[in-house]
Backbone:
């Protein structure tokens, strides 16, 4: 079991405060369990992609977590920029490209397996996170956890705005 960090933490994006970052939520949904020869390869194709992401964090992948839902699996990922995410997805040298071609040919619109993704561009100062008595998780695990004594979401958002203002004055 992961080590629990006592107290209240928030996440600090370890990049310039004026840059947005990306949250990608994606997953695989099994629509017909009887067609295991269709959905099992889809699941197995995801493993090399995850390995490539962890191995190549310098390519803009900040981190992420797996989530499970019935009947499927999801991933929450954090990326430095949309360009980094798209470069990974479209690169013929990365496993996503081959997996996507296989999926379109083997599954296509036949419906045995579903894929989905949602991409969010998070502007500076437009996010708020809090973890209390948790192991490293979410954005804090992908970036840098920091202690906070701000006890409300509104105060944590205002603290982000104050830090952005200080950075703007310093530059």
Residues:
């Amino acid at each position: 079991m992961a080590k629990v960090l006592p107290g209240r933490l928030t996440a600090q994006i370890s990049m310039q405060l004026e840059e947005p970052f990306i949250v990608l939520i994606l997953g695989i949904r099994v629509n017909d369990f009887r067609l295991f020869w269709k959905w099992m390869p889809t699941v197995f194709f995801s493993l090399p992609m995850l390995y490539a992401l962890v191995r190549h964090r310098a390519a803009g992948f900040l981190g992420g977590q797996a989530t499970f839902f019935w009947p499927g699996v999801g991933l929450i990922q954090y990326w430095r920029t949309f360009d980094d995410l798209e470069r990974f997805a479209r690169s013929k040298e990365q496993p996503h490209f081959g997996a996507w071609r296989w999926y379109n040919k083997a599954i296509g619109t036949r419906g045995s397996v579903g894929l989905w993704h949602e991409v969010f561009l998070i502007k500076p100062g437009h996010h708020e996170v809090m973890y209390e008595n948790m192991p490293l998780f979410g954005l804090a695990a992908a970036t840098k956890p920091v202690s906070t004594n701000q006890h409300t979401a509104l105060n944590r958002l205002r603290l982000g705005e104050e830090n952005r203002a200080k950075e703007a004055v310093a530059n």
